Amino acid sequence: MMEHKPLHERETLGDFLVKALRNKSFLLGAVIVSVILLAALVSFFWTPYAVTDLPVSNRLQGPSSAHIFGTDHFGRDIFSMIMVGSRNSIAVALVAVGIGIAVGVPVGCLAAAKGGWLDETLMRANDVVFAFPALLSAVMITAVFGPGAINAIIAIGIFNIPVFARVARGAALSIWPREFIFAARVAGKSSSRITVEHILPNIANLLLVQATIQFSLGILAEAGLSYVGLGTQPPMPSWGRMLFDAQVRMVVAPHMAIFPGLAIVLTVLGLNLLGDGLRDVIDPKLRRER
Amino acid sequence: MLNYAIRRIGIGIATLFVASIVVFATLEIIPGDPAQLMLGLNATDETLNALREQMGLNDPLLTRYTNWLSGFAVGDLGNSYTYSVPVSELIGERILVSLPLAIFALILSTVIAIPVGLFSAAKRGKAADTVTMGTAQLGVAIPNFWFALLLVYIFAVGLRLFPAGGFPGWDAGFFPAIKALTLPAIALALPQAAILSRITRSAIIEVLSEDYIRTARAKGLPNRTVLWSHAMRNAMIPVLTILGLQFSFLIAGTIIIENVFYLPGLGRLVFQAITQRDLIVVESVVMLLVATVIVVNLLVDLSYAIIDPRLRRRR
């Protein structure tokens, strides 16, 4: 059974981890995500084969003991390409989440703190941004500045802003009427100080869950953009680009399409499991409903 | 209800207006002169100027914006820089591929997701629920264009049941056209169905814990009636919200999927336009898609009030 602790009593990181690791979804997600992160880190120092070599005589080989995921149309080792490509996916999605948080959270908190016309204006501006799916922003940015990984970051980042603004506003609005906020007001604290000292720590966990979700959406979006040529450009390996290269060679080399795709699925699955687990641990109320 | 609808429509129009400024402003800061692009480097200043004048490029920014906007209202979007045909004609042709594809996918995803979500909710906690939701969890993680590649490999290359790409046009008859759109629609629909079924399940489960459901059961109503007519109606609000959101993902998704299947839709058009720097086409297609997203979200919001009479009174 669950214990009912007073709301203001903060649990230590240790308590949290013990609780989290008992959650199957969190544990599985954490393992998968750690493996992917590790692969990305290791790729800076070591990959089975160099991805800059083009041993064309080895091209389009199926999986074997020498190349466990086979080779591509330039003879590059697909496993090594996936390792190096993971950096790119992670970097793009991570920075895009950062942009979403850096802009969205202050906007949401401001809207919640001030209310009135400012709230209305900010949320209507949010609606406008929300009408631009990441792909459409990417199309516009590419039309203006030409293709590149930076476009993907900006487009996905812009898409993340209204998401974080909404979550932050909604969560902050539920904290504002609480007694301890009232006490802080009586003590003479300004609303910006209350936001930083009391609101943010109390909504941080919800934002963390959202960040995990947006991270996984970012991985998917980056892959999609690179696939259609609006994201990462060759020769930089990227999962989406690898799938583009695989498409015309599906008949002779299906392994070129299968493994990069599985890498995307595994990463997104891991992040989603991690996010679901986190939400269950952070908000047990939701778990009872499920 | 009427007040709410008027207010919501007003907000929708304002959003459209601001979005149009964003699209116009973004594509106006583009380096490069469309007239120069059309005529090539050898054009004389005189011909360049004449063309700029004809295309309205010499007008002040505000005039061009209002011309563009009013053109949108009457369906006159100007001429494509590269094809030299009216943009509205180009879009009109392409939309006959993209819109049916998006609707096909939306129908597929709804038809799959709602029964699956309902089934899972009814079997909550049992093995069938775990398996269905595990599959859904996997489905959410699958990129639609990769799924599309796999479908092509299995059903077009392997089994030869469907074409691998291309579109015969509606003139070729309804069935060949639908056949060409089937794999793309499945590729678009399944990942969306995975999300939708999870939402449906949790919405139903939440509703099932309400008192009136217990009352309905206590009255001796069969389980099926309770689920379909009592629980479903109340679970529709979150489901509709997601459906509205999904439509904008589907629109973006069609752009990518059209590239997998070489379908001559709006997505292909916009990519060709980008490579040829045919900005007037990019501008118009992006605006059209953004407007669709805004209008669909508006309709979703309005339909809440129809489904849930409580919302009408509250506002």
What does this structure look like?
- The complex is a heterodimer of chains A (290) and B (315).
- Chain A has 290 residues and is mainly alpha-helical.
- Chain A is 72% helix and 0% strand.
- Chain A is built from eleven helices and no strands.
- In chain A, helix 8 (191-227) packs parallel to helix 9 and helix 8 (191-227) runs antiparallel to helix 10 (255-282).
- Mean pLDDT of chain A is 85; it is low at 1-5 and 286-290.
- Chain B contains 13 helices and no strands.
- The relative contact order of chain B is 0.14.
- The model of chain B has no long low-confidence stretch (mean pLDDT 83).
- At the A-B interface, helix 4, helix 5, helix 8, helix 9 and helix 10 of A face helix 1, helix 6, helix 7, helix 8 and helix 10 of B.
Largest sheet of chain B: none
Mean pLDDT of chain B equals 83
Radius of gyration based on Cα positions of chain B: 24 Å
* Strands of chain B, total number: 0
Helix residue percentage of chain B: over 70%
Order of helices and strands of chain A: HHHHHHHHHHH
How many DSSP helices of chain A? 11
Strand content of chain A is: under 5%
State the share of residues found in helices of chain A, binned by percent.
over 70%
| Low-pLDDT segments of chain A | 1-5, 286-290
Distance between the termini of chain B: 7 Å
Strand content of chain B: under 5%
Q: What's the N-to-C terminus distance of chain A? A: 16 Å
Notable characteristics:
heterodimer; A: 290 residues; mainly alpha; elongated; disordered C terminus; B: 315 residues; 13 helices; globular
Short structural description:
The complex is a heterodimer of chains A (290) and B (315). Chain A is an all-alpha fold and 290 residues long. Chain A has helices spanning 13-22, 24-42, 78-114, 116-130, 134-145, 149-175, 179-186, 191-227, 239-247, 255-282, 284-289.
